[in-house]
Structure formats: structure tokens, C-alpha cells
Design goal:
Length: 271
């Protein structure tokens, strides 16, 4: 009886919540079906940066491994709070949208996705997104997987390139390597920006272990890494401007490379 009443209350509350306009929330989705490319690392560092700078951000973890929620549990209590939602858990006592609710005043919602998402997952994850970040490691196999992921975003999730909500973050790079050059050339040919290049650094591993972000570590040790995270956050902060520009422009953004060719093994050129 009690659970029935609770359920009715949730449905009623949802109707009210859903009629509220969340148009001023940046819904940031981090995805790449390839495992281990840095999705959770990006999600936690962006959340920590917003927590230090802004109002309380929310982080939503769709990965059954729960790495982001585990990071949040490790987070020292004296640091600025981050709201966490374990989206991978399914409760029989609550409706799905009740489980996924975040405080109304949340300005930045960061969504961490699992490896190996299906087409249906991709559609659900990217619905109403305002920014989509794809972390990519600079190896041939990872670049190939990223090209598939981008093709699925455009063809399956129907992300309109002219909305300019897609960006790539090159992760675990080493300076002046052929693979980084290859990654840059490949993405350039797609017309998708690389907004940041993160180096391979133990700082990321330490921040994950301690439940903190790079912005919360000793500045002298993490300066170059913090600068790169700031670049990402600057791009994310521009989401309303990007949306406004895309509504104003009548130009169709055409890639140098046709979309269907993404589904073939990328030809990386010979330069
Ligand atoms: N720039 C970096 N330098 C060094 N280590 C990194 C960097 N980025 C991520 N890592 C490490 O690589 C491992 C994988 O990163 P992470 O868990 O963020 O990937 P993921 O895409 O979320 O993986 P999964 O698909 O399994 O969820 C972690 O141990 C993380 O600490
Ligand atoms: Mg992860």
C-alpha cells in the first residue's frame, strides 16, 4: 500500500518536474564504446572542476562497473560536493525518470557511459544532450573504433553536425608521435574539433585513486594537465553560444570525408 502511494507520488512529481524547463542545463555526455579510453577520467575531472568553480554539478554513471560512483564515494567530505546518480542501477520501487532526477538547480550534468553501448543506449544517452565529448587514444585500433562511434552518433543517434555539440579529446598522448599526428589528421578530415590534448600522466591515476580532480591537487604538479581540462570546460561553457550560432546559420557543415566512409577502415593518408 505504502509503495503504491510512493509510486503515485513519484508519477505526480515527475509530471511537475517534466513540465519544468531545463533549457539552461548543460547536459554533457562522455562516450566512446571502446573501453579504457578515459571516459570516467574525463567525467570526474570535469565534475571536480565545476564543483570548485560553480554551483554543485551532477554526475550520472551509466556504467555497471560504477567507477564514477566509486570515485565519488572516495571523495573527501571537505571538498565541494558533487551530486551523484547511479543510473546503472534499476530499482523496482521507483520509476526510471525518478531514479534519474537531479536537483532542479543543477547547471552542469555530466554523464559517464559504459564501454560497448548498443544503438538503443546511444540514442538514450544522447537524447537532449548539449555537448558530447569523445575521448580517443592515439592508437590505430582506437582511432578506428572512434570513427565507428562518430558514424553511429551521426547516423544512428542522428546528431546534427551543424549543432556543433560534438568534440574529441585526445587522451594519453605523447609529444610528437606519429599516432597523435595521425589522429589529428583524421579528425580534421571529419570537421570535428579536437578541443584538448591530454598527456599520459600519473596525475590522472592519482586523482582517480583519491576521489579528487586535477584542480584539487598541488598546482605546481598538475599545471599542464589543469590547462587542458580548462580548455575542455571553456568549450563546454560555450554550449549556449554554439546552439545559438547553429540556429542562426543556414550553412550545412560538410565534412571533407563523407559520413559513410567512416564505416570503412579509415585511410590515414600518407603524409
Ligand atoms: N591521461 C591519462 N594518463 C594516464 N592514465 C590515464 C589517463 N587517462 C586515463 N588514464 C587511466 O586509464 C585507465 C582507464 O581510464 P578510464 O577508466 O577513465 O577509462 P574508461 O573509458 O572510463 O574505461 P571503461 O570503458 O572501462 O569505463 C584508468 O586507470 C585511468 O586512471
Ligand atoms: Mg569508465
Amino acid at each position: 500500500m505504502l509503495s503504491c502511494n510512493l509510486y503515485s507520488f513519484q508519477l505526480f512529481a515527475e509530471i511537475i518536474l517534466n513540465t519544468r524547463h531545463h533549457g539552461n542545463r548543460n547536459r554533457i555526455v562522455i562516450l566512446n564504446p571502446k573501453g579504457g579510453c578515459g571516459k570516467s577520467t574525463l567525467a570526474t575531472n570535469i565534475a571536480a572542476c565545476y564543483a570548485q568553480r560553480d554551483s554543485v554539478p551532477a554526475i550520472m554513471d551509466y556504467d555497471p562497473q560504477g567507477s564514477t560512483m566509486a570515485w565519488l564515494e572516495r571523495r573527501p567530505k571537505d571538498l565541494p560536493p558533487i551530486h551523484g546518480v547511479a543510473a546503472y542501477k534499476n530499482s523496482m520501487q521507483a520509476t526510471r525518470s525518478w531514479q534519474l532526477r537531479v536537483p532542479n538547480e543543477t547547471k552542469n550534468l555530466i554523464i559517464d557511459s559504459p564501454a560497448g553501448v548498443t544503438h538503443d543506449d546511444l540514442r538514450e544517452l544522447t537524447r537532449d544532450s548539449s555537448s558530447i565529448l569523445i575521448p580517443v587514444l592515439p592508437s590505430l585500433m582506437d582511432i578506428h573504433a572512434a570513427s565507428r562511434c562518430i558514424a553511429d552518433l551521426l547516423l544512428v543517434a542522428k546528431i546534427d553536425r551543424s549543432e556543433r555539440k560534438l568534440a574529441v579529446v585526445a587522451n594519453r598522448t605523447r609529444k610528437n608521435t606519429k599516432s597523435l599526428e595521425r589522429l589529428m589528421r583524421f579528425l580534421d578530415s571529419l570537421g570535428i574539433p579536437i578541443i584538448s590534448v591530454l598527456r599520459d600522466s600519473q596525475n590522472f591515476v592519482h586523482s582517480a585513486e583519491q576521489g579528487i580532480g586535477l584542480h584539487e591537487m598541488q598546482p605546481s604538479k598538475v599545471k599542464p594537465d589543469v590547462q587542458e581540462i580548462n580548455r575542455i570546460v571553456d568549450w563546454l561553457d560555450g554550449w549556449e553560444e554554439r546552439r545559438r550560432q547553429s540556429l542562426e546559420t543556414t550553412d550545412i557543415v560538410r565534412p571533407a570525408r563523407p559520413i559513410m566512409s567512416l564505416l570503412r577502415k579509415p585511410g590515414f593518408g600518407s603524409a
